[in-house]
Specification:
By secondary structure, the chain is an alpha/beta fold. It folds into three domains: about 170 residues, MoaB/Mog-like domain (Molybdenum Cofactor Biosythetic Enzyme, Chain A), CATH 3.40.980; about 70 residues, Alpha-Beta Plaits (2-Layer Sandwich); about 150 residues, Alpha-Beta Complex (Maf protein), CATH 3.90.950. Helices cover about 40% and strands about 25% of the residues. It has a six-stranded mixed sheet, with helices on both faces. A five-stranded mixed sheet has the order 14-13-15-16-17, with helices on both faces. It has a four-stranded antiparallel sheet with strand order 10-11-9-12. A hairpin with a 2-residue loop joins strand 16 and strand 17. Helix 3 packs across helix 4. The chain is globular and about 75 Å long.
């Protein structure tokens, strides 16, 4: 079934908000076996939304729209949907009672009158309860056209999509299980991967390959193209095995798991723990780890030792070592890793120190110079890397490389810094 994702919000078009919702919805729909025909973004204008609905429904029978369901005057998505379908807005007393209870639970002494607008729903619309906020999801259908309205707040949208929308779409529209496979890799660029895996495949097999680079990693999805007849499960499995074999040593997952989720599984299975000492990455590793539910079982803590004094006072790095080798050096990275092990009584640790720019580089250590160290049972290993890009890219690439080195070290049973 073809789907169009419609994002409603002037803040998207002005660049004040990044449209993460469309990507999230598209990924979930694709995994569930639906074809996303198009993504569009339009302003908070009733006239514009009505026109966009007409254009979208001329190309697809299902539209999932996000945004414009709030209580303020620029939230006009519901009125635009009513206008397109020729319906009125009705006050939903049952949903209003839910709103009153919601505001009471979060500590409001008086119900905010503007939020009363959110209890108005289009005639004959199915109300999808919002477990994370106030704006309900709405499902409107007429003459084979299905419009699903979701709030623009990412957390609320995700909950409604997973709890209400996907189960409905799968039950109502999906005729069979989707046939696809994924091979998730780290440490190789997209062009290198393509050269390795496309050799030896027939044209009909290479047509099943799609490449999705992200944050220093590349996912290879094996599935039929949107406009092509569906490939059978055996053909997809055969290509997936070929891909994984050609990329041996760089494949960290054959399912929708992140690298840090794989690391979490390895540490949990062994009953081991991790600590971190970050300088140039400023806490990116700690954030990636603590974004995972249950990370407290295997992550003991971290130090963002940005200043030299923090490295010496909090991690026990010898000040003379810092003066002699410089804060950005393999020796200091190794000392930071040992210090993190001791400070947090962990089995493994990661340490990073480097120059993210845009200033601070030298001929000997230019911008992008980063030292990463891994410490584990009885051993430590460190290595120098040279990353390109701007400050944000250098920091992100450093954090990804550190995760890769930890993953390789866990597989080897000792610190490894080759990749």
């Amino acid at each position: 079934m073809d789907v169009i994702i419609l994002t409603i919000g002037s803040e998207i078009l002005k660049g004040r908000t990044i449209n993460t919702n469309a990507g999230y919805i598209a990924a979930k729909l694709y995994a569930a076996g639906f074809n996303v025909r198009q993504e569009r973004a339009v302003a908070d204008s009733e006239e514009t939304i009505v026109r966009a609905l007409g254009e979208c429904f001329s190309q697809a029978e299902l539209i999932i729209a996000t945004g414009g369901l709030g209580p303020t005057r620029d939230d006009v998505t519901k009125s635009a949907a009513c206008r397109y379908f020729g319906r009125g807005l009705l006050f939903d007393q049952e949903y209003f009672a839910r709103l009153e209870d919601y505001f009471r639970r979060i500590g409001y002494e008086r119900f905010p009158e503007r939020s009363r607008n959110q209890a108005y729903v289009p005639e004959r619309a199915k109300v999808l309860p919002n477990s994370r906020g106030t704006a309900p999801g709405l499902l409107l259908e007429d003459a084979g056209k299905v419009l699903i309205l979701l709030p623009g707040v990412p957390g609320e949208m995700k909950a409604l999509l997973e709890e209400e929308v996907l189960p409905y779409l799968i039950e109502r529209f999906r005729r069979e299980e989707p046939h696809s496979a994924v091979v998730r890799t780290v440490g190789l660029g997209e062009s290198v991967i393509a050269e390795r895996i496309e050799e030896g495949l027939a044209e009909i097999q290479t047509a099943l390959l799609s490449y999705y680079p992200h944050s220093g990693m590349v996912d290879i999805v094996i599935a039929s193209a949107i406009d092509a007849p569906p490939a059978d499960r055996e053909s997809i499995a055969q290509v997936a095995e070929h891909v994984a074999g050609r990329l041996e040593g760089h494949v960290y997952a054959r399912e929708e798991k992140s690298l840090w989720e794989v690391i979490a599984d390895l540490l949990t299975a062994r009953g081991e723990t991790l600590a971190a000492a970050e300088s140039c990455t400023g806490g990116l590793i700690s954030k990636s780890v603590t974004d995972l539910a249950g990370s407290s079982r295997w992550f003991n803590g971290s130090v963002v030792s940005y200043a030299d004094r923090a490295k010496t006072d909090l991690l026990g790095v010898d000040p003379a070592l810092v003066r002699r080798q410089g804060a950005v050096s393999e020796e200091v990275a190794l000392a930071m890793a040992r210090g993190a092990l001791e400070a947090f009584h962990a089995d493994w640790s990661l340490a990073l120190t480097g120059i993210a720019g845009p200033s601070g580089g030298s001929q000997e250590k230019p911008i992008g110079t980063v030292f990463i160290a891994v410490a584990g049972p009885g051993k430590q290993a460190g290595r120098r890397f040279q990353f390109g890009g701007d400050r944000a890219q250098i920091r992100q690439r450093s954090a990804i490389k550190a995760a890769e080195l930890l993953w390789r070290s866990l597989l080897a049973g000792q610190p490894v810094v080759d990749s």
